[in-house]
Amino acid sequence: MSISELAKASASTWMPAPPAPEAVVSALRQTLGLDLPSDYLDFLRFSDGGCGDIPVDPWCFDSLWKASELAEFNRGYEVPIYCPGFFGIGSTGGGDMFAFDIRRAQPWPVVYIPFIGMEPDAALLVAPDFRSFVAMFGQRANHKT
After folding, report:
1. What are the residue ranges spanned by the domains of the chain?
2. What is the reported pTM?
3. Does the structure show a pLDDT above 70 at 144?
4. Which long-range contacts (CB under 8 A, 24 or more apart) does 84-91 make?
């Protein structure tokens, strides 16, 4: 199953965005100088962002960043300075950033890191890779608050 099929299968339970323009997706690698996972690039071609629930802490993704925002937001949040080895891809809406842990070979885990106190040691695992992260979209946890 392709990443777009996986995302589309649960699209009624989370809020996908319109697809990223192909020119923007194609320019990412040049702009960033980083080989983003093919599943992630294919996801952007299906949904350039989105929001919804996930069944693990932090329980939701409020905003996956648009392809056109990735470089700007990583610079603006000073991710390379405060959290070297990570690349931000979105936020929880509650003060945390979703990021790839790029300190090792792909597949890169998806983690979340607080914006305040952003540092590599603060990263908490959400999913072992982007495909696993997408597979969680729209699922609610069976936990008591």
Report:
1. 3-135
2. 0.93
3. no
4. 84/120, 85/120, 86/111, 86/113, 86/120, 86/123, 87/32, 87/34, 87/36, 89/40, 89/64, 89/65, 90/49, 90/61, 90/62, 90/63, 90/64, 90/65, 91/61, 91/62, 91/63, 91/65, 91/115
Q: What is the per-residue pLDDT for 143?
A: 53
- CATH no., domain 3-135: 3.40.1580.10
pLDDT digits (tens, 9 = 90+) for 22-35: 999 999 988 898 99
User: DSSP alpha helices (H): ranges in the chain?
Assistant: 3-9, 22-32, 38-46, 70-76, 79-82, 130-135
